[in-house]
Amino acid sequence: MMNPKTASAYDDDPHEQAPAAAGERVTLREVLRRRVFEEFGRHGGSELAGRVGNARRSRTDRPRDAWHAFESALEAFHRRQFVVLVGDRQVEDLDDEVVLSPDEDITFLKLVPLAGG
Length: 117
Known about the structure:
The protein is about 25% helix and about 20% strand. With about 120 residues, the chain is of the alpha+beta class.
């Protein structure tokens, strides 16, 4: 089984592999769920505070579990606090399907407002 590469502005290694079957078709929602659950499993939520979800959230206000972290990430996506790029295209809807491929990066890009507006 081959794994697609995933990239995130938050990762130490932006090309760390996420488990998935090459050629698997999944919705963006499922890609996001897998990523959040993987990060939550790795860090138990301690590293997720401030990564996904409400940017105003304090580092002490950590998600209680992976499902809460996932709900927070969905809310952040709807608020356009981050975008997801698959290869060279932006996926704009959580129900859009993407084909997982070891040759195509999935990038989670956090959006930050510019100073002054």
